[in-house]
Amino acid sequence: MDPFVNGSLIPAVSTGLEITNTEKGHRLRADVNGTTMTEFIDDSLILQHFDVVSPTMIVKITPTFKPTDKGMLVKGFLARFQAPGVQPDQAQEVHVEMEYQNVHDLPIPARINMDVTNSATFNFVLDNCSVN
Q: pTM for the complete prediction?
């Protein structure tokens, strides 16, 4: 997926898609085979959070962005994973931060740091990258 906000999280077809204007922006909701996907977008059309609720897992993703001259670049995100019936304060959290490098004038991750709360930390370095 392109790191710029380009609508990739919005379903390709409008069947079952519900768009609601709210006081703080817009809510997009789709139900697909027992899974509900909901996006919350502010008045500036910036994704605030993305929730997925399935029979086996609840995932809530809150991204952070860095403005660039080409649009908003994903700087990181917080993902919370929670099994149904588990209290929200017991959800597993994953914090992800990204640093970028330009390869052929395209921003691609140079470093990805991931912290799985109370479990593990992963630090990835991507070097000698190319773009096709």
A: 0.79
